[in-house]
Design a protein that fits this description.
Layout (H helix, E strand, L loop, with lengths): L8 E4 L5 H10 L5 E5 L12 E6 L7 H15 L3 E5 L2 H9 L1 H4 L3 E2 L7 H6 L1 H10 L7 E3 L3 H10 L4 E8 L7 E7 L2 H11 L8 E4 L8 E8 L5 E13 L5 E7 L3 H13 L4 E10 L4 E8 L17 H9 L14 E3 L1 H13 L5 H7 L3 E4 L8 H43 L4
Parallel strand pairs: 1-2, 1-4, 2-3, 4-5, 15-16
Antiparallel strand pairs: 6-9, 7-8, 7-9, 10-11, 10-13, 11-12, 12-15, 13-14
């Protein structure tokens, strides 16, 4: 598939399974892959296809130090490398400092203002509206007046996006919340108070099951032409209903593909992209929810029958190697093992998944995010991280339970003291 594999690749920021997929996909072709992450236990660092591992946190270090560090990684690789960011923050950093990185790295010639605009939920929806791409009704909630305006105008339920929470592995996560009542919304406003919250939005809730959630993965060249484009569906999400893909399947959807290509061509996008859509049965349109201007953690779902994915397409194009368009592998299924198992309990509890349906959904899976017979160690790292997360949650619940008991005991002692009838 790839005639010249001599150009190394550096993957920066590899939370959970995303960076591991890139490392395996390119490493199996004989391409030297170097991994940079802030978490020394990131599974990608322990893949047999990782040629070199480096610990560095782009979010915490000064920009000049990070640029110096990345230059050092390229020097150790021995030649100019491709650079693939795995998170929004890493993609924004690379875009902002492309000129400084250019002597050491091969990058798509991207408009530096475009990546942060697409990462911003508010700005992305504004761009979509500008180019007449269907999107859900969206309100900014960054300031108190905006939150009050949303309370007056939007019908419930709504989805709240952009609430920053502590990272589960490495890299930040943004939580999505479904608000179904006015009381829930007011409770959220009480927590936020009068503070200004960056990039917090309320979005119209589009009714329908998870079979209405579609994805597009693609690679666009220097002329914003799509050289590889794939569509698929989220069968299960983690967290359930609003989270990332834990089980997905490839399906052809010309409407989603054409909408994605139209939008990205219009804004002059170049490079790898990951997009989410939702079908709205009320008006028959596929509405754009999110754009990730980088490789998505789900990208290994989207593989053609000849092995092409967006990481390989980017490598070929940016190293000057021609390739034929990649046909979609219709029906291909892909799973994130721990995410799927964790979400299955919630689906079962909600009456959305029976044991028979659970077994049936596991049939026909072509690839797992972690388990691979030729690269077993990352699976152990996944189990280590999951057990660590489990025990942390148990400790938090125990502490909360003890604190609640102490509070009740103190309240009872206080009441007894006031009434003077306790011994």
């Amino acid at each position: 598939m790839i005639a010249d594999t001599s150009t190394p690749v550096v993957v920066v920021a590899c939370p959970h399974h995303g960076g591991l997929g890139v490392t395996r996909s390119l490493g199996r072709l004989g391409i030297p892959v170097y991994v940079v992450d802030s978490n020394r236990w990131a599974p990608a660092l322990y893949s047999r296809y990782c040629r070199g591992r480096f610990i560095w946190n782009l979010n915490n270090a000064p920009a000049e130090k990070s640029l110096e560090f990345l230059a050092g990684v390229a020097r150790k690789a021995g030649r100019r490398c491709l650079l693939i960011p795995g998170t929004d923050s890493a993609a924004i950093f690379v875009s902002a400092h492309a000129a400084a990185l250019e002597p050491w790295y091969i990058l798509p010639a991207q408009n530096s203002a475009l990546v942060p605009s697409l990462c911003s939920k508010t700005h992305m929806h504004g761009l979509a509206r500008r180019f007449q791409i269907p999107t859900p009704t969206t309100f900014s909630l960054q300031t108190r007046p905006e939150r009050l305006e949303c309370l007056k105008k939007m019908d419930l339920p709504i989805i709240i996006k952009g609430i920053e929470v502590p990272p589960r592995r490495s890299g930040s996560q943004a939580r999505k919340l479904i608000i179904r009542s006015r009381q829930q919304l007011l409770a959220l406003y009480d927590v936020i108070g009068n503070a200004t919250v960056h990039d917090l939005i309320a979005q119209e809730y589009i009714p329908g099951g998870e079979d209405t959630v579609w994805m597009f993965n693609g690679y666009f060249n220097a002329h914003s032409e799509c050289l590889a484009g794939f569509t698929g569906k989220k069968l299960r999400q983690c967290p359930p209903y609003t989270g990332v893909t834990s089980l997905g399947v490839c399906h052809t959807n010309d409407a989603v593909e054409q909408t994605a290509k139209k939008f990205l061509k219009a804004i002059g996008y170049r490079g790898i992209v990951d997009m989410d859509f939702r079908y709205d049965a009320r008006d028959g349109e596929y509405k754009l929810l999110d754009v990730n201007p980088r490789i998505g953690s789900t990208f290994r779902l989207f593989v053609s029958k000849d092995g092409m994915d967006v990481a390989r397409a980017a490598y070929l194009d940016l190293t000057g190697q021609r390739f034929a368009p990649a046909p979609l592998w219709h029906g291909r299924k892909w799973i994130v093992e721990d995410f799927y198992l964790a979400a299955a309990f919630r689906y079962y509890r909600d009456g959305m998944l029976t044991f028979r349906e659970w077994l049936k959904s596991l049939r026909g899976i072509q690839e797992s995010a972690f388990w691979a017979s030729d690269d077993r160690l990352p699976t152990l790292l996944m189990l280590r991280a999951d057990l660590s997360e489990f025990f942390k949650r148990v400790k938090r619940r125990l502490r909360a339970s003890v604190a609640l008991k102490n509070k009740r005991r103190a309240s009872m002692v206080s009441a007894c003291g006031e009434k003077n009838y306790c011994a």
